[in-house]
Amino acid sequence: MSTFLGFPTRRGAKTLPDDGAHPGAPGTSAGPGWADDVPHPEAPLRWGATFPEAAKQALGNTQLRRNLAHATSTIRAKRAAVVGEVPDWEELRDAGSTIKAHVMSDLPRLLEELERNVTARGGVVHWARDAAEANQIVTDLVKATGETEVVKVKSMVTQEIGLNEALAEEGIAAFETDLAELIVQLADDMPSHILVPAIHRNRSEIREIFLERMGDAPPDLTDAPRELAMAARAHLRRKFLSAKVAISGANFAVADTGTLAVVESEGNGRMCLTLPETLITVMGIEKLIPTYQDLEVFMALLPRSSTGERMNPYTSLWTGVTPGDGPQEFHLVLLDNGRSKALADDVGRAALHCIRCSACLNVCPVYERVGGHAYGSVYPGPIGAVLTPQLTGSTGRSDPNNSLPYASTLCGACYDVCPVKIDIPSLLVHLRAREVDQDRGRPTAWGAAMKAASFVMARPGRFELAEKAGGVTRVLGGSKGRITSLPFPGSKWTDARDLPVLPKQSFREWWADEHAATETDPRGERRSSEAPDGGGSPSADRTDTETTGDAR
Amino acid sequence: MRIALAATCIADAMFPQAPRATVQLLERLGHEVYFPEQQTCCGQMHVNTGYFDEAVPVIRNHVETFAPALDGEWDAIVVPSGSCTGSIRHQQAMVCRRAGQEKLGATAEALAAKTYELSELLVDVLGVTDVGAHFPHRVTYHPTCHSLRMIRVGDKPLQLLRAVDGIDLVELPGAESCCGFGGTFALKNSETSTAMLSDKMSNVKSTGAEVVTAGDYSCLMHIGGGLSKLRSGVRTMHLAEILASTQSAPTPVDVEAAPGRDSEAEAAR
Question: Locations of Basic and acidic residues compositional bias (chain B) (predicted)?
């Protein structure tokens, strides 16, 4: 991946005017003091590797694991403390969940209401079916201003559509102004967290990135957080004051007033949203809330869940254009990009309730070990695992995104912290079932194993025979009494864990020895007398006449 | 009380000491325990791996096995597993209904209301925390994700453990973190699973405990498999085994007596 001025470029990208802002090292991506382990993907929602493949690589990065363990545990503790002090937190979560469910059930009408209100207040609304359309709309809008530079507020949705890269191809330089996003951009890296995109970096790496790529970093820069922040501040100030065009995402859009909201911590957003002449906001259609009053719920939920703050430092709200105050031209690009497809799944659509707080990432034991890049999407972590495959859909059996719903132990920590109560474990299971059902008809090892297990476990006689057959494990275990090494795929277990051999006596055999003789319960007696060959035929007392097996 | 035991497939076949201890404990407390022998499995593995259609016949067998509880045959159903209880309570009916089997789903739902994980049965239904157990060993408790967050047993297992005579109960650092098992996750994402297991084992070792206990033998199979690989000298034991242990009939803790090692122990005799 080549870079120019620290920006990712694509083949055929036009050369940007060199104003000395981000002198990078063209032709290389990693600098001397930081690792570069993720090449820029062609598709921001499908980077190429499956989750297990990418996770394996990430797990080998000791720096990443240490950074993540420290960062996630710190933010987990902060969140727990500020959430714990809200007595009606559960009621707030219920309210957030209910409002979002309402939005999804009435999305077309609410979107038109938003469009009417934005338009009435001097804004211009654009509709984009997919990333390419959105990028084209934004590019054309910037070109119409005659500008070749834009400043950006941190935004997940513009990451999702690869806007910076699309603009660069058209000779427009997009400057990220959020500190962490700046770090990611300077390092020619990809974000690895929804809220803290450079969470995989420690401050020593950040110092190296600034010295190598920022251009105007003080040569005696240390890795003290304050010094790093001040260097970025000085670097960005000139951009804020000179930029004529800003691009933002939106945390919320209020249908009944046409108001947009951006919630942030650094003040860079406020600068971008107020100083330039033209403001272009790109938002996913699911970011809608029905009324202005609904904001009170989400403003209570979001900062505490996200940064672990009672209230974030900067909340900017704007409605259309106000003459003489702020940007005099406002464009709102409403992006679908797979959201309608997700909405069509009445279980899966709950993923669209997400307000991008990232609490689920911070508590996820999988995310904590592998980091964001392993998910192969700008949306990582538990929410990414349910959102990404729904936005992209599956291109077929080899689609790496098929592996995402399995990137979880279903431990449930994500559901517990979600401010809008998205039942992510249930969604993961639902998406697994969807994938299995789509793939039916093709023989797979997993499918065969599951069918066999189903056959065995549907009848006690078969199960008992299987238990007896399990005696073979005692041969495998030998005199050790434990199985320490199995061939593939069993090696996936025994590489790191022993497996006990099956005991000589199963529980049911023990029960038969100890209890069946004295069993007085007629049902117990009758059932225990069933032949162990197990009755392929349903027993006579089956009263439920529904068909067994693969009814669908 | 007349209590039907759902032993769980994994404990029936691999870890019979858990349901056995459950029977001994409940009988000691004066209850009648029944083991409906038609039972096999609750269907959890199929459901969590996405094989809903294959889960239906397994769930059907479970529901038909325990349906007499709805006619008053048994007062309650006990499961020595948090995740199987969770699957019975939160997945069985959903999977049946998704397959269009409304009646089966409704029966599953009714049965789920009479089904309890062991610590729930003891504390909530039988109203007992001191079960008269004696277990003079250093023990740490891993809460397991589904006990903690799916069926929310809270501190019930700890209430029971604290009341055990002679026990030296030590808190497990990072207790609420998943051990990395996750059913088929341990195979599909074995490297990530191992990374999680490694941290769990470090925490277990840091307690100096002889025994790590939990309400689920599936998680214990994972943690114990890792501890055995390391020759750590720490063994796993189901909550029921500790609660079943008494002065006159103590549960042995030596690793030689661990599950699956009976052949060697016998050979040595």
Answer: 259-269
Structure tokens at A476: 């495998």
Domain ranges of chain A: 3-340, 459-528
Number of helices and strands (H, E) in chain A? 24, 14
Q: Which residues in chain A are contacts of B222 at CB distance < 8 A?
A: 497
Contact indicator for B201, B230 with CB cutoff of 8 Å: yes
- Cβ contacts of A413 on chain B, cutoff 8 Å: 145, 149, 176, 178
Residue A521, pLDDT > 70, answer: no
Report DSSP state, residue B168.
E
CATH of domain A3-340: 3.40.50.10420
Please give the Cα distance from A91 to A310 (Å, whole number): 17
Q: What's residue A517's pLDDT? A: 60
Judge whether residue A25 has pLDDT over 60.
no
Residues 94-123 of B with CB under 8 A from A: 98-101, 103-104, 107
pLDDT tens readout for residues A360-392: 999 999 999 999 999 999 999 999 999 999 999
pTM for the model stands at 0.90
Among candidates B79, B8, B76, B78, which has minimal Cα distance to B42? B8
Least confident range from A38-42, A81-85, A344-348, B191-195: namely A38-42
Probe site for chain B from A409, A437, A543 (most B CB atoms < 10 A): A409
Least CB-CB distance to A508: which of B37, B48, B57?
A: B37
Contact yes or no for B229 and A410 at CB 8 A: no
- The string of DSSP letters for A463-526 reads HHHHHHHTTHHHHHHGGGTEE----TTTHHHHTT--EEPPPSS-HHHHHHHHTGGG---HHHHH
B41 in reach of chain A (CB within 8 A): yes
**pLDDT the model gives residue A39:** 75
